[in-house]
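Researcher: Re-running this chain for the archive, since the previous output was lost when a drive failed. Same request as before.
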Amino acid sequence: MSPNPFFGVVFHWLGGLASGSFYVPYRGVRKWSWETYWLAGGFFAWIICPWTLALLMTKDVAGVLRQQTASTIWWTYFFGLLWGFGGLTFGLTMRYLGMSLGMGVALGYCSALGTLLPPVFKSLMPGLPVGTSIVEIVKTTSGQVTLLGVGVCLLGIGIAALAGLTKEHEMPEEQKKKAITEFNFRKGILVATFSGILSACFAFALQAGKPINEASLAAGTSPIWTGLPPLTVLLLGGFTTNFIWCVFLNFRNKTARQYFASRAEVAAGVDAADSKVPLFANYLFSALAGTCWYLQFFFYTMGATQMGKYDFASWTLHMASIIIFSTMWGWALREWKGASKKAHGLIAAGIATLVISTIIIGWGTYLKSH
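Model: Regenerated structure tokens:
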């Protein structure tokens, strides 16, 4: 069955919905530190879900991985490790900037670098396992249309980030803190920049893992599920980074007991009833958040199989849809309450531009496949 880019766009939108929603369940966690609930959710996102769905949906995943060269496994894992730093600080970005502004800034960097650098590096270093080169892409009408869509997407991301910046300048500090308890623009921008740059390594990891996709297809896996086995390696890299950092914070902040303690430590004179920790609910909300986090990759790999030779554009579609849905959550959670008509107008224009970009990219990849 030949690729269908329009199905690809739909799958990327579903992935964006999952990613744009993943942080919402964490709001239900009580009396746990950030590092505790982040690692609890991450265990579902990076270990349980990838292996469960790969085992259920693909053929002989263990055998497929065993037949790979050390180079393929290493590069997929290594880029996943680097992406892990981006994912780690992505959670901090949400804490300091909120869902709307945080995702707008971080994903702006991530989209540009993750989409354009793999084909650029492929042109500079032909031996690098990262797909089609930029030279090949610009030579065709379909490639030019796809790149136009990428450019429109980056414009939309820029407008969305500008809307968030406008809101930040307009709203009084007290109101910002009411919507986002730990709001800190300076710290948030620094963290978002770091997060966005390293998160782009996810796109490199997917390209490096292409031999795993091909081996899974040869083993009898349906083409639409062949992206799942590489995720077991890629996300293991991300888990490694996050596990080390969260455990370090657990020991430094003396929060390791939170994973099992049914009561939190409270100051003298505080009612003991206030120390009860909803342990089951905390694990449930963390599991929901982690599962949503994983589902973005589940739908992403499905979408990428439908984008044909220009699957590099999948990264842009993914980023655009995340911003669209995270902004909607930002509205629902009243992060934009008190912002001016100008800020609301800018974010609406940014979302409209992102929607248009997904249509252009879908059309460009459709031209290539027909």
